[in-house]
């Protein structure tokens, strides 16, 4: 009996998602604690599309690589659309005639641009976070907040996630992007909690 209970626990987080691509639907079994990036790696042999060229869309939103399926609200039976990105990545461009020094300068420049892009998102998230604080203060005073405020704010944070997802980043820039993704994820979870509390005011 104990063994069966352990098995149920182990299988509890395994879900099946249906990924649509090129007119066909592909069921994929995966843990809901897996990242979107891991799901893309599983889809590569099924679609012949490299992970960096995949855009996974769920309920009208592009899923972010660093987020887990669970935090992205992807549940068992979810339908996800796969689109092939037409963006040409720098690593796809031949650099046969490029000398090492020039390549290093380009890498430094690209990292700088990526860091600036992430910093720009961070500024926007700071502004949105202030609005979340205002809502929290209002609720602490016993003031009920309109539901649309939570919807608008959540959508605004999702837009920032999309911006982060569009930033090509490696090294330091990638670490900064991941940090900002987790920050947004935490704030959105906080908003969900606030919304639940607000409904009881």
UniProtKB/TrEMBL annotation:
Q: Which InterPro entries match?
A: BAG_chaperone_regulator (IPR039773), BAG_dom_sf (IPR036533), BAG_domain (IPR003103), Ubiquitin-like_dom (IPR000626), Ubiquitin-like_domsf (IPR029071)
Q: Return the SMART domains for the record.
A: BAG (SM00264), UBQ (SM00213)
Q: Which UniProt keywords apply?
A: Chaperone
GO terms (BP aspect): protein stabilization
Q: Which PANTHER family match?
A: BAG FAMILY MOLECULAR CHAPERONE REGULATOR 1, BCL2-ASSOCIATED ATHANOGENE
Database matches in Pfam families:
BAG (PF02179), ubiquitin (PF00240)
- Any idea what this protein is called? Plant intracellular Ras-group-related LRR protein 8
Q: Which domain of life is it from?
A: Eukaryota
Q: Where is the signal peptide?
A: none
Query: What are the GO MF terms of this UniProt record?
Result: adenyl-nucleotide exchange factor activity; protein-folding chaperone binding
Q: Per the UniProt entry, what species is this protein from, by scientific name?
A: Nicotiana tabacum (Common tobacco)
GO CC, sorted alphabetically, is: cytoplasm
């Amino acid at each position: 009996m104990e063994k069966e209970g352990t098995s149920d626990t182990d299988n509890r987080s395994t879900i099946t998602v249906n990924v649509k691509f090129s007119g066909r639907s592909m069921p994929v079994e995966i843990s809901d604690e897996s990242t979107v990036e891991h799901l893309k790696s599983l889809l590569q042999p099924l679609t012949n599309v490299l992970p960096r060229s995949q855009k996974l869309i769920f309920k009208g939103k592009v899923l972010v690589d660093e987020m887990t399926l669970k935090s992205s609200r992807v549940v068992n039976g979810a339908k996800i659309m796969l689109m092939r990105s037409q963006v040409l990545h720098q690593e796809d461009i031949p650099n046969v005639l490029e000398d090492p020094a020039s390549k290093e300068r380009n890498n430094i420049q690209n990292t700088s641009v990526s860091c600036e892009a992430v910093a720009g998102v961070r500024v926007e998230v700071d502004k949105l976070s202030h609005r979340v604080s205002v809502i929290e203060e209002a609720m602490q005073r016993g003031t009920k907040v309109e539901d649309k405020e939570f919807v608008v704010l959540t959508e605004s944070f999702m837009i920032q996630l999309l911006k982060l997802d569009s930033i090509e980043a490696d090294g330091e820039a990638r670490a900064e992007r991941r940090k900002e993704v987790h920050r947004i994820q935490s704030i959105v979870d906080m908003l969900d909690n606030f919304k639940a509390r607000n409904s009881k005011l």
